[in-house]
Amino acid sequence: MADLQPIEAALEALLADVTPLDAERVALSDAAGRVLAEPVTATLDVPPFDNSAMDGYALCALDAGKRLPVSQRIAAGSTARPLAAGTCARIFTGGQIPPGADCVVMQERVAEENGEALIPVDVPEGDNVRLQGRDVRQGDVLLNAGERLEAAALGHLAGQGITEVRVRRRPRVALLSTGDEIVDPGTPLKPGQLYNSNRPMLKRLLETFGAEVVQLVSVPDDYAQTVALLNHAAAEADVVVSTGGVSIGEEDHVKAALESLGQLDMWKLAIRPGKPLALGRLPRDDGSHARFVGLPGNPVSGFVGAWLFLRPLMGALLGCPALAELPCLTATATFATETGPRQHYMRVALRFTPSGIEADAFDDQNSAVLSSCIAADALAVIDPHTRVEKGSPMRCLWLVG
């Protein structure tokens, strides 16, 4: 095990010299999940005017406790007139506060009769008024570069009337599946063959991490064809990801093909699952290179490797700090286990209890048991040569896209 490298060294090799991709302008309606390439500054106050937080009556707080004539009706979207002294205005949620009014009393507390409203005595200044600029002031930074545009951020931008944003280009990824024994669903299985579970799983994970999968390629157990397909993938993609073929078997050609074409930066890691993992670079005709990540063929190893390596790589290419590291939390183990010479990443389900977070490990942690990943909320990180007792605190990496 002396030649096995720690995950920290692998991440350092993987991310060395990675810079964010170029930017492009897209419509806000098409920007969901994209990453901002530049900060966005507010050009409007939000809200743009003082408005009512509820249906009721707008008045001057000094007139509380009086019977006031209702001098105007203000619906949302209409322009309020200045409030005549000694009167109130019927107002609806979102309606503009008229000049001269400084509070709103909810309609349930007011009795209106013959065009007059009896106002209760305890109506303080500013009550139920949403002041102009309460959320955003003109000139504020709305969102910083590197921010991922999810639901609230999209709404924040739309509130400024923004229709286009500059975002990072999605990393283009070629996803290669190696092995004569791997066939696509829909193809009758022959003896010794398996359906390709890695392809749809990794494609979905890559898309969740912000990538665009531009190639889905099946690679036979043939050295010359492996070289040719790797070379073709590198010409089109920013990142080439393969599954299988990176171990030391006679039919494992990916590592040798990578070394013949480009550069092998890292091979074999002191982690479980996922020891046979190759990292490197594939050259292009223009002098640049594509990053290469060779994941193991076992589906759980591919699943774990995607979270540990592909997610931070996509984050670096997108300039998105939120993707750089998985959120880490401490949970209490509800199980006992012991590790050997490799760092273990166990699939666990989290339970949030009144006494804290508990981590339940799946019984079968074998790297071929993909069902353990379906309900997994986190990866429990256990150091080499460590005994975990029930009730022990443990570090967990939360699996969020």
TrEMBL record:
Described purpose of this protein according to its UniProt entry: Catalyzes the insertion of molybdate into adenylated molybdopterin with the concomitant release of AMP.
Domain of life from the UniProt record: Bacteria
Signal peptide: none
Gene: moeA
Xref: Gene3D superfamilies: MoaB/Mog-like domain, MoeA, C-terminal, domain IV, Molybdopterin biosynthesis moea protein, domain 2, Molybdopterin biosynthesis moea protein, domain 3
One term of GO molecular function: metal ion binding
A GO-annotated cellular component: cytosol
Residue ranges annotated for the MoaB/Mog domain, each copy included: 174-316
Alphabetically ordered keywords of this record: Magnesium, Metal-binding, Molybdenum, Molybdenum cofactor biosynthesis, Transferase
Similarity annotation: Belongs to the MoeA family.
SUPFAM superfamilies: MoeA C-terminal domain-like, MoeA N-terminal region -like, Molybdenum cofactor biosynthesis proteins
Coiled coil, from the record: none
Name of the protein this chain belongs to: Molybdopterin molybdenumtransferase
Species assigned in the record: Vreelandella aquamarina
Enzyme Commission no: 2.10.1.1
A GO BP annotation: Mo-molybdopterin cofactor biosynthetic process
Pathways involved: Cofactor biosynthesis; molybdopterin biosynthesis
Class in the EC hierarchy, top level: transferase
